[in-house]
């Protein structure tokens, strides 16, 4: 039906068609997502062996539903989720894929220590943002991703964790290497780099934990080893290390993309930028609108532990249910004029950070960094413009971010 309407896209038949693997969806995933939302809001993809939900109400209900589980080993044979399992050690995982009782044991002490750290370090975090923006070129054309959006999150997390200043460059290299793990179509060289980076990072974290036990410092690694020693956090060394590492993998690229997507949106919507400049108090609402409009993580997933109806469809035990966060955030049932980027409206809450027991643990940090960037960047560069360029979106499935964003100042 949609085909007869001229410009309306045909309704996708597979999950892959709406991911950044496909050049058209990479450029703009929203038309095919809209077609699904309107014509096939609960799609079963037999190739990917997954269900795919696109309506806000269904996505919200599903991410919040505590009867679902997460670990990909529990997904049905042949499901694309199974590719996320570490083949050498399939049960080893951070909280991202942990189920209860482990998730309920590991996440609360980690979250408590992490949030206390962020609050304590707010001024330092904002100073890193300011210094990075100050250090960018004073005039000419530069790549905003390279100069600002990439370095800020990794420098911030390094400072929170307690990485030695002289190891910061190595730490950045290793972090970049482990993020290659998010790309299922890596070259053999990339896989090698990823493995080497992961091993170096693991060894460095183990060393830091040992050193902090002997000589405590003012950082998250010290917080975690002290919690362990006090018996308040019944976590093994491996669990502490894997979950601290997860803060890197989960937080770096995503926050980079929140910064990059936001700057691109402001520069392509000058009236919105003018509104922000006129009232910098809008920065927090602006962060929420960027998260809604171009969610850096476009989907999350859940696995059914037993047969159950989901959005009126018969989902079987072990089947995977993908929740399109990008689509839910543009659902006209929930958001008025959903395809309009408008930082001046107070809108319903988006689902860019997922929801329920697995809701993003890094949301407060990502918000803090992005808010400061949006405030400071346009203060330093009041005349920033976008020079002519083809915007290249990253080809990582389930992520939405820009590779290179040239800006003129
Ligand atoms: C704009 C930035 C970010 C976005 C869009 C984002 C998005 C997400 C999403 C969608 C999930 C899955 C939630 C679910 O399934 O319900 C998640 C989980 C997670 N995120 Fe983030 N994230 C961001 C930043 C961060 C940061 C800064 C950190 C850490 C420093 C982080 C660490 C994690 C971790 C550890 C999880 C797993 C939580 C769990 O399963 O209990 N994220 N994130």
TrEMBL record:
<dbReference type="GO" id="GO:0016705">
    <property type="term" value="F:oxidoreductase activity, acting on paired donors, with incorporation or reduction of molecular oxygen"/>
</dbReference>
<dbReference type="Pfam" id="PF00067">
    <property type="entry name" value="p450"/>
</dbReference>
<comment type="function">
    <text>Cytochromes P450 are a group of heme-thiolate monooxygenases. They oxidize a variety of structurally unrelated compounds, including steroids, fatty acids, and xenobiotics.</text>
</comment>
<comment type="similarity">
    <text>Belongs to the cytochrome P450 family.</text>
</comment>
<keyword id="KW-0560">Oxidoreductase</keyword>
<protein>
    <submittedName>
        <fullName>Cytochrome P450 family protein</fullName>
    </submittedName>
</protein>
<keyword id="KW-0349">Heme</keyword>
<keyword id="KW-0503">Monooxygenase</keyword>
<dbReference type="GO" id="GO:0020037">
    <property type="term" value="F:heme binding"/>
</dbReference>
<dbReference type="InterPro" id="IPR001128">
    <property type="entry name" value="Cyt_P450"/>
</dbReference>
<keyword id="KW-0408">Iron</keyword>
<dbReference type="GO" id="GO:0005506">
    <property type="term" value="F:iron ion binding"/>
</dbReference>
<dbReference type="GO" id="GO:0004497">
    <property type="term" value="F:monooxygenase activity"/>
</dbReference>
<dbReference type="InterPro" id="IPR036396">
    <property type="entry name" value="Cyt_P450_sf"/>
</dbReference>
<dbReference type="InterPro" id="IPR002397">
    <property type="entry name" value="Cyt_P450_B"/>
</dbReference>
<dbReference type="InterPro" id="IPR017972">
    <property type="entry name" value="Cyt_P450_CS"/>
</dbReference>
<keyword id="KW-0479">Metal-binding</keyword>
């Amino acid at each position: 039906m949609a085909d007869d309407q001229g410009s309306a896209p045909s309704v996708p038949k597979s999950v892959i068609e709406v991911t950044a693997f496909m050049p058209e969806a990479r450029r703009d995933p929203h038309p095919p997502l809209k077609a699904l939302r309107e014509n096939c809001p609960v799609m079963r993809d037999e190739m990917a062996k997954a269900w795919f939900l696109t309506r806000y109400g269904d996505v919200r209900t599903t991410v919040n539903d505590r009867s679902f589980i997460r670990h990909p080993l529990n997904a049905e044979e042949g499901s694309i989720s199974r590719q996320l399992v570490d083949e050498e050690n399939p049960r080893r995982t951070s909280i991202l894929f942990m189920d209860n009782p482990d998730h309920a044991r590991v996440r609360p002490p980690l979250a408590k220590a992490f949030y206390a750290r962020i609050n304590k370090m707010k001024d330092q975090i904002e100073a890193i943002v300011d210094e990075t923006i100050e250090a960018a070129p004073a005039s000419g054309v530069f790549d905003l991703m390279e100069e600002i959006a990439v370095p800020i999150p990794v420098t911030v997390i390094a400072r929170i964790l307690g990485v030695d200043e002289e190891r910061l460059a190595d730490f950045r290299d290793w972090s970049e290497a482990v993020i290659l793990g998010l790309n299922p179509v890596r070259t053999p060289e990339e896989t090698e780099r990823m493995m080497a980076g992961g091993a170096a990072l693991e060894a460095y974290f183990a060393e830091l934990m040992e050193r902090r036990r002997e000589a405590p410092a003012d950082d998250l690694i010290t917080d975690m080893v002290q919690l362990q020693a006090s018996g308040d956090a019944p976590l093994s060394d491996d669990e502490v290390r894997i979950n601290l590492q997860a803060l890197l993998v989960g937080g770096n690229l995503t926050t980079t993309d929140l910064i990059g997507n936001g700057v691109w949106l402001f520069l392509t919507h000058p009236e919105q930028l003018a509104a922000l400049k006129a009232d910098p108090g809008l920065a927090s609402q602006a962060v929420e609108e960027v998260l809604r409009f171009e969610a850096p993580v476009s989907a999350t997933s859940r696995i059914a532990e037993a047969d159950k109806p989901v959005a009126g469809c018969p989902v079987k035990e072990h089947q995977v249910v993908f929740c399109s966060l990008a689509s839910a955030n543009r659902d006209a049932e929930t958001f008025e004029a959903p395809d309009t980027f408008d930082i001046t409206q107070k809108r319903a809450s988006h689902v860019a950070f997922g929801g329920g027991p697995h809701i993003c643990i890094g949301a407060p940090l990502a918000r803090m960094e992005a808010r400061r960037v949006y405030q400071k960047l346009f203060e330093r560069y009041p005349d920033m413009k976008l020079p002519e360029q083809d915007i290249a979106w990253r080809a990582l499935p389930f992520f939405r971010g820009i590779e290179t964003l040239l800006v003129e100042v």
